[in-house]
Amino acid sequence: MRILIVEDENKIALDVARALEASGYIPEIVSDGEEAWFLGDTEDYCAIILDLGLPELDGISILKRWRAAANSTPVLIITARGSWSERVDGIDAGADDYLVKPFQIEELLARLRAVLRRTAGHASSLIKIRDVLFDPRQMRLCVHGTPLSLSQLEYRAISYLFHNRNRVVPRHEIVEHVYGINNDRETNTLEVLIGRLRKKVGVDLIETRRGLGYIICDEDDRTDNPK
Ligand code: CA
């Protein structure tokens, strides 16, 4: 899952990026407001972590522009301690949650997970589909109660599919959220990756929709479409 970090304080940006990467996300850092606005509008992120005090264009203005353009990417704002009016403005402008600096990285990760699952319409972070249990907090996938050993790329792919379950996810979109945008992967690289995952999670979980992409369905929504 690609996450944009908009933060002009280099140390904070790097700390957050490292923590996100260790949690299986693909972080991208931008420090300039104008560029952040452009990227948020043109690229496909699962969430955006937005500092409010930025050079060129402040965070609230960026957020207002995104929302005015019907960009509904979840946004978690980070603000300086004490500026409660900024937080109110941020939420009124369409932020999904906020954190006050300095914050613990674990709290940022927990709030990010909450924002991601709320925007996907799910109340719980644990997802169980048939015999497979996905636990994003532990970055773990269990089959019949046994944790699987997954590579970083496998984890990124399966977590993206779980997060977008019941939706056919196009191949190019998965490639982008597994390998990042600066890649020259062929889609057959993805097919190999999906093949490896199927050996681990069972052949039924990830369904192929020919010419369209892949989907993980809840039991109730399963269709009789050919795999
Ligand atoms: Ca700042």
Provide a descriptive summary of the structure in words.
The structure is a single chain. A hairpin with a 2-residue loop joins strand 6 (127-129) and strand 7 (132-135). The chain has 2 domains: 2-119, 3-Layer(aba) Sandwich (Rossmann fold), CATH 3.40.50; 127-216, Winged helix-like DNA-binding domain superfamily/Winged helix DNA-binding domain (Arc Repressor Mutant, subunit A), CATH 1.10.10. The model is unreliable at 221-227 (pLDDT under 50). 32% of the residues are buried. The strands form 3 sheets. It has a 5-stranded parallel sheet with strand order 2-1-3-4-5, with helices on both faces. A 4-stranded antiparallel sheet has the order 6-7-8-9, covered by helices on one side. Strands 10-12-11 form a 3-stranded antiparallel sheet. The protein is of the alpha/beta class and 227 residues long. 41% of the residues lie in helices and 21% in strands. The chain has 8 helices and 12 strands.
